[in-house]
Specification:
With about 120 residues, the chain is mostly helical. The chain has five helices and no strands. The chain has one domain: Up-down Bundle (Methane Monooxygenase Hydroxylase, Chain G, domain 1), CATH 1.20.58.1610. InterPro entries: NADH_UbQ/plastoQ_OxRdtase_su3 (IPR000440), NDAH_ubi_oxred_su3_sf (IPR038430).
Length: about 120
């Protein structure tokens, strides 16, 4: 028996053991809210045309903005290995400064306040 087959047998056995144990360990205590198909808190029998707060969209846009910031800054450690790491540092600083100024502007304008 070689190493590959040993590793495969161990992985399959461990997966089967964990799948079997996962059916025995959890304690199922269902209640009315858990059995409801709508766990979001909205009344499923009410009107479907309730006004939706635009604040939730603001949070989503802010999340996407800062997620994009992380995606733009992800290559920063590899960019430091280039011939001119100062250029990489200046571009990263420019991105962070621009996003920070935008966040400060939104904060001052009251766009991040939940209560009106």
């Amino acid at each position: 028996m070689n190493l590959l087959s040993t590793v495969m047998i161990i992985a399959i056995a461990l997966s089967i053991i964990l799948a079997i144990v996962s059916f025995w360990l959890p304690q199922m205590n269902p209640d009315h809210e858990k059995l409801s198909p709508y766990e979001c808190g909205f009344d499923p029998l009410g009107s479907a045309r309730l006004p939706f707060s635009l604040r939730f969209f603001l949070v989503a846009i802010l999340f996407l903005l800062f997620d994009l910031e992380i995606a733009l800054l992800l290559p920063l450690p590899w960019g430091d290995q280039l011939v001119s790491p100062l250029t990489t540092f200046l571009w990263a600083t420019a991105i962070l400064t621009l996003l920070t100024l935008g966040l400060i502007y939104e904060w001052i304008q009251g766009g991040l306040d939940w209560a009106e």
